[in-house]
Design a protein that fits this description.
Elements lengths: L1 E4 L2 E4 L11 H30 L7 H16 L7 H29 L3 H22 L9 H21 L2 H31 L5 H33 L1
Antiparallel strand pairs: 1-2
Helix pairs in contact: 1-3, 1-6, 1-7, 2-3, 3-7, 4-6, 4-7, 5-6, 6-7
């Protein structure tokens, strides 16, 4: 089945054609995206627990627990006997990450509750587009972005620390929009890095899914803030 864009036909089958990837790599990516999907659902569950119940609330403690679980995952060897344990660590980390988003979601809901589903759908669309771009690329050209992206991330962290003392609205905007662009680029880099690692014999799909999960969460967080800021600006003008 073909769709037509202008004068150029686009095969819809081509959208799912990853023949440039070998069978082992495709199987590995399926596991990675399955783990990512599970993490996303558990993060949503954690956010829901914060918003709709008084059982657990996101904050400093949930952040510490989340970091502890991620470290436990990192230092538990990737062996078949440890797979369920490591999946448990991943699930706990994702749940705590969702809890940590709770306070921000509370603030966003007070502005406009429709921002959250809008930001989530936009994040899914962005993530899908950049992931497919990385998967379709026949040459692993995005791997060369690694040094540049890590340098940019370091600059963003330094700006964040500096802005604690400066309180500059300009720096805040640079962090917000620059961070959004940065983590979109990280999707390209991390996706191709996972492919390269698998080709080099690394089959740790659980740990590989963490990189993509963090990209997803960082984009989602920034989109919520951007949409909320825009909504507030419109309200002030009216």
């Amino acid at each position: 089945m073909d769709a037509v864009f202008g004068e150029r036909p686009i095969s819809l089958r081509a959208l799912a054609d990853f023949s440039q990837l070998d069978q082992q790599t495709r199987s590995h990516l399926k596991n990675v995206y399955a783990a990512l999907t599970l993490s996303t659902f558990l993060a949503a569950g954690g956010a829901g627990v914060h918003i709709f119940t008084d059982v657990l609330k996101g904050g400093f403690l949930s952040g510490i627990v989340g970091i502890g679980l991620m470290l436990a995952l990192a230092f538990t060897s990737n062996e078949p006997k440890n797979q369920m344990k490591r999946m448990g660590y991943l699930g706990g980390f994702a749940f705590c990450t969702g809890l940590g988003l709770g306070p921000l979601m509370d603030a966003v809901i007070e502005i406009d509750r429709s921002i959250i589903p809008t930001a989530f759908l936009a994040t899914c669309l962005i993530f899908a587009c950049f992931s497919l771009s990385a998967l379709w690329a026949k040459e692993r050209s995005y791997l060369y972005l690694g040094g540049t992206l890590l340098s940019a991330l370091s600059v963003m962290l330094l700006l964040g620390i500096a802005n604690i003392f400066l309180g500059s609205h300009l720096i805040y905007k640079i962090q917000l929009y620059g961070g959004l662009i940065l983590f979109c680029a990280f999707i390209l880099y991390d996706t191709q890095l996972i492919i390269q690692k698998r080709k080099n014999g690394d089959n740790d799909f659980i740990w590989h899914s963490v990189d993509l999960f963090l990209d997803f969460i960082n984009i989602f967080r920034r989109l919520m803030v951007i949409l909320a800021d825009n909504k507030e600006s419109k309200k002030r003008k009216n």
